[in-house]
Amino acid sequence: MHKASLGKGITQPALTKSLKILEDEIGSMLFVRTSRGLEPTEAGETLYRYARTIDQEARFAALDINNVVSKNGSNIRIGVGPGLAVSSFPKVLVNFHRKFPGVKVIAQMGLTKQLVEDLMRDSLDVIATARPPQELPEHISCIHLFDIHLAVVCRKSHPLNSSKDIGIEDLFDYGCVTFPESDEFIKRSHQLFGQTADKLNVVVETNSISVMLDLVASADYFALVGEIIVPRAMQAGLVRLPVPSLEWDMKIDLMCKTSLVETRPVRALREAWASYRA
């Protein structure tokens, strides 16, 4: 309560009184006191979820009105996959800020599973990442942005780089660096490699592009990455291996609440990515 009152810029007694008024209006306690301090009741957790939604809708309403944006400013919380974070996202942000110069962007990088969970908890407003394997609830919309192809990168001195004809089976002799395994990765690798998928020798899983590329540059490993990461890989001294039979397309979607799809900030993000890909 002390920290909360400081955060709101009011006295603790004033906050306690406001909380009591709110509980009287709702007709239920919002917190219970335990040995660990205050913990929310079921009513408190429910009210919190609605409050997060109200906060989000209010921020987007402000972002959607030019006069409010220019005078008060606001913020938008965007989550992106690691491939987008090192490729298109910086340019998309520049484009976005031209239209919303007073808006603070709170950016978070993560893998699809975590980003979707944060979106569902209202910890993020919009995410752009690989399409999740599971169906999303009706109140969440997916807008397709583009497809990316899978690529294999390795260091220039890698033994595979001296081969003219490289097949998928040749990859099994070397360690593979990937992003942490997900249900989608396992599913797609079995589609790609068939019964030999279990021969894929994953030696390191990391959600850091820098760690991934540095590892591959330092040993005879290879990395399975989206083609949008290839330019960054080449900057790190890596090369893309020509593997003709590597046919794996990944769909990249922008996801947010359905109620926010037609708001100006979400439209601006969609247009910025479309412009970048064009």
In short:
The chain has twelve helices and eleven strands. The chain has 278 residues and is of the alpha/beta class.
Key words describing this protein structure:
278 residues; alpha/beta; D-Maltodextrin-Binding Protein, domain 2; nine-stranded mixed beta sheet; two-stranded antiparallel sheet; 12 helices
Mean pLDDT value: 84
According to DSSP, the number of beta strands is 11
CATH topology category name of the domain at 148-250: D-Maltodextrin-Binding Protein, domain 2
Query: Main β-sheet: number of strands, strand sense, barrel status?
Result: 9 strands, mixed
Number of helices: 12
Structural class: alpha/beta
Helix content: 40-55%
CATH class of the domain at 148-250, anyone? Answer: Alpha Beta
Low-pLDDT ranges: 67-72
Shape: elongated
User: From N to C, what is the helix and strand string?
Assistant: HHEEHHEHHEHEEHEHEHEHEEH
The span between the termini is 51 Å
CATH architecture of the domain at 148-250: 3-Layer(aba) Sandwich
